[in-house]
């Protein structure tokens, strides 16, 4: 049975409701990308590398621009999903792409700040990235997707997707 937290996360990402087993498998697949990107962000922070931030930003901009060719989803669909006997991931819906765009923009901001020698600015972008990825991976809360719904005026819906929000009975 999928938990209300996972169901809320899936709604927040823009996916339709699914049976519990499918929801759990889909959720695990969606975590493939952030589980790879976040450690790379931590490496970029440790190295204070504008090049790593710029490369990560470019990949995320690619994902936003051409969601059907997202390299993380393609690797997952080709190698991971068949071994787990799960359905392949579909291209990301709007809220998920918006979240990727925000992450790409923050990574680009960190890269530019580092190239320009603006250390404090880089730290600010890096801190936001760490907080957002931590909320995503440890709290099952996608800040970018939440903001997407808020900007569309869907405040009630956005709040209903918070990890601690109760699903309607």
Order of helices and strands: HHHHHHHHH
Helix content: over 70%
Instruction: Output mean pLDDT.
Output: 94
The main pleated sheet reads as: none
Q: How would you classify the helix and strand content by structural class? A: mainly alpha
Distance between the termini: 15 Å
Strand content: under 5%
User: Any idea what the radius of gyration is?
Assistant: 16 Å
Number of strands: 0
Which regions have little confidence, pLDDT < 50, spanning 5+ residues? none
Count of helices?
Answer: 9
The coarse silhouette is globular
Short description:
The chain is built from 9 helices and no strands. The chain has 169 residues and is mainly alpha-helical. The mean pLDDT is 94.
Explain the layout of strands and helices.
Layout: H1 4-13, H2 20-30, H3 32-47, H4 50-65, H5 71-84, H6 94-116, H7 119-139, H8 143-151, H9 155-160
Helix pairs in contact: 1-2, 3-4, 3-7, 4-6, 6-7, 6-8
Folded structure, characterized:
The chain is mainly alpha-helical and 169 residues long. Helices cover 75% and strands 0% of the residues. It has nine helices and no strands. α3 runs antiparallel to α4, α4 runs antiparallel to α6 and α6 crosses α8. The longest helix has 23 residues. The chain is globular, with a radius of gyration of 16 Å. It starts with a helix and ends in a 9-residue tail after the last helix. 33% of the residues are buried. The model has no long low-confidence stretch (mean pLDDT 94).
């Amino acid at each position: 049975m999928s938990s209300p937290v996972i169901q809320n996360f899936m709604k927040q990402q823009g996916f339709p409701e699914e049976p519990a087993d499918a929801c759990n498998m889909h959720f695990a697949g969606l975590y493939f990308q952030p589980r790879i990107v976040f450690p790379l962000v931590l490496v970029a922070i440790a190295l204070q590398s504008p090049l790593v931030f710029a490369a990560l930003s470019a990949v995320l901009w690619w994902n936003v621009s051409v969601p059907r060719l997202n390299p993380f989803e393609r690797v997952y669909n080709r190698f991971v999903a068949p071994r787990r006997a799960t359905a392949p991931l579909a291209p990301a819906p709007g809220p998920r792409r918006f979240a990727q765009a925000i992450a790409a923009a923050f990574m680009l901001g960190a890269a530019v700040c580092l190239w320009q020698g603006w250390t404090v600015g880089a730290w600010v972008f890096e801190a936001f990235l760490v907080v957002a990825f931590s909320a995503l991976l440890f709290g099952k809360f996608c800040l970018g997707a939440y903001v997407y719904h808020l900007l569309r005026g869907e405040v009630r819906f956005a709040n209903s997707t918070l990890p601690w929000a109760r699903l309607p009975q």
